[in-house]
Write a structure and sequence with these properties.
Layout: H1 2-24, E1 47-49, E2 53-59, E3 64-76, E4 80-85, E5 92-95, E6 98-99, E7 102-118, E8 124-133, E9 138-148
Parallel strand pairs: 2-9
Antiparallel strand pairs: 1-3, 3-7, 4-6, 4-8, 5-7, 8-9
């Protein structure tokens, strides 16, 4: 029961952080429509999913609850959709799957939150990947879960 309570606390904390991130962003102006008969050229992404790899190093053989965050800078005029692939079998997730149009300017703000409840894992490395797209541009962030002797990377 205690781990369920901890998972709920992390999920609520992630939701509060997302709400704060969204409250601090402003909506971007909609794009002008294309001239009749002319399709606009594909535009380069005006947003950036912070690069690098997020790691979680935990004791093997114990269930664990934590979260990962996708930090996004820039602006986007269409909703961003997010998904994650590669978590170990038995992982329960609670995550932001759609981000409404917004503008974070030059600041990388925690916009995509992924709460995870991991089952006991055998020693080893478990790579996963967050994918975010606006329908035209797709960006990814690596996630690595490492089950080892003790907590800490």
């Amino acid at each position: 029961m205690r781990s369920v309570s901890r998972f709920l606390k992390y999920t609520l904390a992630a939701a509060a952080g997302l709400a704060l991130s969204l409250a601090l962003s402003t909506s971007a102006a909609p794009a002008a429509p294309a001239a009749p008969g002319h399709a606009p050229p594909p535009a380069a992404a005006t947003w950036d999913l912070g690069g690098g790899e997020q790691r979680l190093c935990i004791p093997a053989g114990e269930p664990w609850t934590s979260y990962f965050v996708g930090f996004i800078a820039g602006s986007w005029s269409t909703p961003l959709t997010a998904e994650v692939d590669g978590f170990p079998a038995g992982t329960e997730t609670s995550m932001t799957t759609t981000v409404p149009p917004g503008d974070n300017g030059d600041s990388y703000i925690g916009t995509v939150w992924i709460g995870v409840r991991l089952p006991p894992l055998a020693f080893g490395e478990y790579p996963a990947e967050l994918t975010v797209t606006d329908g035209t541009s797709t960006q990814t962030m690596r996630i690595l879960i490492k089950a080892q002797e003790a907590w800490g990377c």
